[in-house]
Automatic annotation (TrEMBL):
Record protein name field: AraC family transcriptional regulator
Keywords of this entry: DNA-binding
GO MF: DNA-binding transcription factor activity; transcription cis-regulatory region binding
InterPro entries: AraC-type_N
Listed GO CC annotations: cytosol
Pfam families documented for this protein: Arabinose_bd
Residues in HTH-type transcriptional regulator AraC-type N-terminal domain copies: 21-204
Keyword hit for Transport: no
Protein source organism: Nocardia fluminea
Domain of life the protein comes from: Bacteria
Presence of keyword Transferase: no
Amino acid sequence: MAAVVRAAALQGFDELVGELGADPIELRRRRGVSIDADPEDMIALDPLAQLLEDAATRLDCPDFGLRLAARQDSRSLGVVALIVQNAATLAQAVTDGSRYLLAHSSAYEVVVDEISSLDPAWATVRFAVRVHESTPQRQLVDACVGYMHRLAFITTQGRSRPRALSLPHTPVAGAEVYRRFFSAPVRFEQPYAGLHADRASLHAQLGPADPMIRQLAIDHISAGLDPARAARHSDLVRNALVRSLGIGRGTKTEIAALLHQHPRALQRRLDREDTSFEQIRTLSALVENQATGAL
């Protein structure tokens, strides 16, 4: 089975390529990467990896993968980000991410190793990607590890910083470029890609989290992986209104942001279910008013 990834993994690609002076549509067409795919659509990973390499070469931008990662936010990971960002600890966030990462890509693996190969006092969050052996991975690995670093920084509100990074390849950009991006030393030509951090930081409490949103996201992913339990997107929106923002009080933009989606993408999915955000919110408000009146 060919490796796939959500199209949202290319969040920011078109804008970055355009700013650097090339035509992103031309680059996409060359590799057969969809121009107008929905962010939730699964696309082939090998052509995407080739696309990143093409962009780096065409634009003479060896740190293209890192630049792409710097532009991406939690929407790139979608509903999985809701689980990660509402975990109790960074270690749980990684464990949850590993368990449900299949909803984002069939080829990505993330795992916590309690003993770092660089220092016995550190732990490692390891990353691996499975693509065809002939497919170049440097830009893809840079982009993924860079995004993993960025998401960890966002999730911990800047409290967790790596002590070092390891990458399996030689530097495609200058070593100092990597050091500036990660704010830590980077070791190249290592057995695996990973973020190395103080072990205690992985088990420190992350702070306020919403267990209801976390469970909502887990239920949604579990249903998506089991066709017999397939959940409607309208249920996800309705539950988000009820459980997080209060029935009838969330705007489409707020709920879309909560679910790590663009408002237009959210509406497209609701269109497929013959409903709209406005209809769901109006009905929810009627239910709330009726319940309030009965008290």
